[in-house]
Amino acid sequence: MHYTEAESELRALMLRGLDGDQVAYRTLLERLSRHLRAYLLRRLQGWPDDVEDLVQECLLAMHNQRHTYQSDQPLTAWVHAIARYKMIDLLRAKSTREALHDPLDDDSELLVDEQAGASEARRDLGGLLQTLPDRQRLPIVHVKLDGLSVAETARRTGMSESAIKVGIHRGLKALAARIRSTAP
Amino acid sequence: MKTDDLVSLLAKGLTPVPRHAAAQRLGLALAVGLAAGLLLLVLGYGIRPDLARAAGLSMFWVKLLVPAAIGCAGLLATHRLARPGVPAGLTWLGVFMPVAGLWALAAMVWMAAPVPTRPALLWGSTWTTCALSIAAFSLPTFAGALLALRSLAPTQARAAGAAAGALAGGLGAAVYALHCPELAAPFLAVWYVAGMAIPVLAGALIGPRCLRW
Predict the structure, then answer these.
(1) ipTM, 2 decimals?
(2) pLDDT tens digits, chain B, 213 residues: what are they?
(3) How many domains does chain B have?
């Protein structure tokens, strides 16, 4: 697809997502995850196993920082800057670690397949989610996994509706922070 | 968790987000910093008693407006650097041009002044406290701007920290100017610039540490 056409479609989806349109937002994230996967596979040829984890980290970061997107800016530039930021973070962590431990495995670069589909993520996001405190975990599990409404979740957990919203917001940020601190 | 599951987790129960979050949060930092600075001025340092007379002097306005211009450019730069994919661009010029102008003015005054009067133009009577006072005045805005940046998404942490420092330093120096008795351009070119440079350097140093996300 032509670049500008994809850009304007993705941007329209993003703007609808920012207004709370779940369907548009889901479509956007699905398309972005394919773009991100292809982008990161090309750049992380030495570490194909890390690609899916990084795709997930980028998606979570974009979601948590979506308030920093301003409609006068190309969405592609915003997404690219976030992906680059997260990739550099990963490479920095790796170079620190691998300089200390194992040498770079050059052979593996030859054997990288042309993967198009999602591979299995190595990091257990579901497990990390379970480590969050209840005031964050329960709102995320009920609203974001089980699809209950905020009101229903408030009734079941005995929390206020605003506490549910705050819990989701802070919980997803805390999840991103746990990903950072458990970086490979 | 599979990526598809993460996508549906993120999309489910989506709430609308307010637009212009970066501008709002930085605006709040600016308002709080300005209020705290004025409070420190009125209760701690005291407004210079001859303010009305000083307002008739062009150097008083140079002293007020050069830092204010730097603060504005710092605000623009911070607002840009707070968002992924938006480079600071030419906003850095807005930080450096007022400094360059002040230095040029100071050089002219210095050259034109008779040699025996030059030390007074440089040291004034408050050089020992000027730079540190400006740094103190900039502290509330600096803290506020860094907090705002932490809730946003700077991808160039060092530059963003420095920009927050320019915003805070410029604003702090402009407020301090309402107390400061000095009027010589060489004094301003050295001590005001040094005072504003403190938060800029501090921001560049701690940015990479405290602005990770």
Answers:
(1) 0.87
(2) 889 999 999 999 898 998 888 889 999 999 999 999 999 999 988 888 888 888 888 899 999 999 999 999 999 999 999 999 999 989 999 999 999 999 999 999 999 999 999 999 999 889 999 999 999 999 999 999 999 999 999 999 999 999 999 999 999 999 999 999 899 999 999 999 999 999 999 999 999 999 999
(3) 1
In a domain, B27, yes or no: yes
* Contact list, B208 vs chain A (CB under 8 Å): none
Q: Tokens 């360059």 label which residue?
A: B100
A133 touches A173 (CB < 8 A): no
In this structure, are residues A150 and A41 in contact, taking their beta carbons and an 8 Å threshold? no
- State which amino acid sits at residue A11: R
Distance (Å, whole) CA A6 – CA B162: 35
For residue A34, what is the nearest residue in chain B, using CA coordinates? Answer: B3
Cβ of residue B213 closer than 8 Å to a chain A Cβ = yes
pTM greater than 0.80 (yes/no): yes
Q: Do B14 and A25 touch (CB under 8 A)?
A: yes
Q: Domains in chain A, start-ordered, CATH in brackets?
A: 1-105 (1.10.1740.10), 123-184 (1.10.10.10)
